[in-house]
Fold these 2 entries.
Entry 1:
Amino acid sequence: MNLTKKEQKYEGKAKKVFLTEDPNYYIVSYKDDATAFNGLKKGTIIGKGAINNRVTNFLMKMLETKGIPTDYVEELNHTETIVKACKIVPLEVIVRNIAAGSLAKRLGLKEGEILKSTVLEFCYKDDELGDPLVNSYHIAALGLCSKEDLATITNYALKINDILREYLKQDNIDLVDFKLEFGKLNDGTIILADEISPDTCRFWDSTTHEKLDKDRFRRDLGNVEEAYHEVIKRLMGEN
Ligand code: UDP
């Protein structure tokens, strides 16, 4: 596709989104900026933008082949991608297989404890409120999305979990938990949007349980860049 970046539409913590000549498409540009704890901790992870862009596109393409509609269109270069223009549903959809992070804290579970069944959580995307946890009643009461759209999102999120878990197993990675965002096209279709990367997933080495994700930055564990590189290497065979 012959599209170029026009006016910047939005700048988030890890990405910039640009309008293009065609209102149906945006160009996303991934940054090396890293933030945690709702922006309180700031830093840079060299090469993160390129890794997150390429890992996201790789996984989005794989998911498309398994019947999940996504916003992916075309990778322009290592940090920039053409995506379908959609309206983001203001929910962070969190899927968990193993207790970690806020779930372990909230429910008093030991980090690493395998959950008896998959946990699905929704957070209302609002930085000022700190992305509070909401349930289907809150979602309806606030009009964040329709009942039908929530059912579609739930089905996709669980299917994506099954596909990703199985896929990552081949690379000796355990999918502990991850966050998804969905968007709506003008015709009402719900698609998977945003990113799937070491910024938005907890990836643990299946054998050593070493963390290969943003927790290395959040918790000052060191070897942050190396962990991001390890993920792209295992998935795509890159060095
Ligand atoms: N997550 C994310 N963005 C957020 C919050 C969480 O991508 O704003 C991801 C996070 O990387 C992890 C999962 O969602 O894979 C669950 O995060 P959790 O609720 O445990 O919060 P955290 O401990 O990351 O603050």
Entry 2:
Amino acid sequence: MSNTIRILMCPPDHYDVDYVINPWMEGNIHKSSKDRAVEQWQNLHNAIKDHAIVELVAPAKGSPDMVFTANAGLVLGDKAVVSRFYHPERQGEEPYFKAWFEGNGFTVYELPKDLPFEGAGDALFDREGRWLWAGYGFRSELDSHPYLAEWLDTEVVSLRLIDERFYHLDTCFCPLSGGYLLYYPPAFDAYSNQIIEMRVPEEKRIIIDEPDAVNFACNSVNINSVVVMNKTSVELKQRLEKVGFTVVQTTLSEFLKAGGAAKCLTLRVNEPIREEVHANVSVESRVIHLEGHLLDAGIMNQALDLIVEIGGSFRVLNFNLGIERQSVSNADVRVSAPSHQIMEDIMTQLIELGALSKTEEILNAKTETVTMAGVSPDDFYVTTIYPTEVRVNDQWVKVQGQRMDGAIVVDPTTLTADCKLLRDLRVGEQVVVDVEGIRTTRKVESRDKRGTQEFSFMGAGVSSERRVELVVEQIAWELRKIKEQKGKVIVTAGPVVIHTGGGQHLSHLIRAGYVHGLLGGNAIAVHDMEQNLMGTSLGVDMKKGIPVRGGHRHHLKVINTIRRFGSIKNAVEAGYLTKGVMYECVKQNIPFSLAGSIRDDGPLPDTQMDLIKAQQDYASILEGTDMILMLSSMLHSIGVGNMTPAGIKMVCVDINPAVVTKLSDRGSVESVGVVTDVGLFLSLLIQQLDKLNSAVSLTV
Ligand code: ARG
């Protein structure tokens, strides 16, 4: 027995479940028995008295949860950080606890008014005194942790809680003497679990299962080798005994109705200081600025959600809602993260949403030098499809050649910045690293524009069959407009276009001057020519829809013949190939690029088997494009998407909704997905164009 440990409790004179501020309280309002509560509390008091000195704070009327003294504050030596309750329901307790700390000789520290921190309920010292485990996610704010570190001069390890049943750290986590840790891992996010595992060796981790967790087994009072708790399974009891603990069970069912048990009802008020332990916080904070149609475009939700999902926390410092329909909103948000790595992950995604880091003076982008050709310094900023600017010599410089998945190379002497693929990096080049001094602009889509005849496509969405015709109408209208304005339309197409009978329609589009470049692979060309030379597509008769005897050899024969000609163009010029998609490309002088792959038969002489070369060809054909039609070719379309900056209209057609979603999910409204048979889509498109052009007759 040790009399040196002092524990603060509060008699349950006014205890009841009067409101709901955690899931345990739901359905329990005024359902607890006063007499039983008093008896259970008394039993706990007795159990603790056997091992420690119990001190009492006077209960206050109107503060039913004051029995949970763990939430009074956090104590170390003669310092006490008094709690700032998250819920107004408990804020009335603050002055009572503060008075008690002051009256008992503690130096009291108070957090800023709007910064919640719920005391020892969310902050538990490692029993060896090496550091403080601090929880956040429900009640306490991550931003309170640096204050704890500074005031108590201790290292703070932040852990994020993710299960609302375990809203306070002490409901699912209990450091025990000897470096043991009793805890319930599913209550924490992956990063926190990793931190716990790094700090506590496996043989010291006592992991509990859900049934024990919901009995609040982690909510234990540990006094030397004694562990006092509400209830434990036989198995857990044995595990604890095996490593030298004595388990004392004392029923606290009445308090469970309020979401608390043994540990919640106590506060250790003489935590010893370890001289060699000092402050060390890894919590990072920064303020970001967001501007645009933050609500309409869902940017605000996305930003706040991603901060929390990645493991940070936020506080909206101010939000100015655009008053008029057209006006933009802006917001300043303070973002906090438990480590530099997490802060960078969050910032990268926020930059993608158009956020700007709001430091007093805007810092120049950090760069590092390439020391190995084709390899970037680690930590490089990975580019997106959005127009990006980087800060060089105190000026914002626009990044040229914007595309996804590149690195940004800056030249401070010429004040230029270029998007470069890793493989193109040369020794000595300066690559932007970290997230400082980088901003992206998301086009502010005005409500007006979205509503008008402009290419609205009903926002970025995947259309169902019902809406296909409507979408096709808009695409036809847009194609015509681009043609009139002498714009550029590129098609990526897979062999399905031919198998579904879309070849004739695509040929038609090319012949009529709507297409200015074709991107595909070996297969589309092979099957297109097979159809036009032999009437089959992959051996299937295109008119009857049935396989032709020996048809599987057709496409190889075609490949062989074209190989003899030396190129598709030669075959056209020799009068051998007389119709079809490839024929029209040659005839209309439309550039095409066929990118090879491992499964290609032949390949055709035109197929580029050097993939780096093929990527370059694609990129050069795509330059200056206004619109891209992606027709049933996932691989080529994804490749194209990566090379294309935001702002270019994209239409992705595929029978598989998953493919369409994947392709059209670029977070910009200019892309639209159409889930339908591509042959049908093309035939509808031709019909629509015909309607629009009834004056100009299109002959097939
Ligand atoms: N009803 C109280 C609340 O929701 C219970 C507090 C339990 N205390 C604790 N340290 N887990 O705030």
